[in-house]
Amino acid sequence: IRAMPSWRKRPRYDCAFLRRDSHPVQSSDLDVCRVWLFFSFSHDGIDYPSALVQKYIRFGDAPDEVSGMWIVEPDIDDNGCRVLSVVPLSSFVRAAHLLPRYGHEFLPPHVTHFNSLDLMSAFYVNKWADHHSFELVPK
Fold first, then answer.
1. What is the distance between the alpha carbons of residues 3 and 96, in angstroms, rounded to a whole number?
2. d(CA 109, CA 23)
3. Distance between CA atoms of 53 and 89, rounded to whole angstroms?
4. Closest Cα to residue 34, out of 55, 12, 4, 62?
5. How far lies 65's CA from each of 41, 60, 68, 125, in Å?
6. What is the mean pLDDT of residues 47-56?
7. Cβ–Cβ < 8 Å for 71, 121
8. Angle (nearest 5°) at CA 103 between 128 and 106
9. Which of 70, 71, 74, 69 is nearest to 56 (CA)?
10. The whole model's pTM is what?
């Protein structure tokens, strides 16, 4: 999982699955996020490895009927800004793969695989990315 302003001459901020609490991983207790920064801080002599993330919220109560994949949208505040949170590194489960949810119109030429996470408003959580994703993503 990378969070880098320049990786092979392009920014790279990966997506990941987060555990909501410290219990064993249950697929229904997972959130999807995009990682913006890895950092750590100390308080009372204890180091806290952390990450600054942008969370995505599930759209609907069930996966999409056609694709079988969950749809997520960026968590947006009342001012239209994407919400950022600080989470402990221990809450990370593994990388996640999001596919933009395209409409019926052609995309403008400036939309690429490098910036689609910034420009699109909804995404499929790709459970077909690999075996582990298929087992992890809620059915």
1. 14
2. 44
3. 11
4. 55
5. 44, 11, 6, 14
6. 97
7. no
8. 110
9. 74
10. 0.86
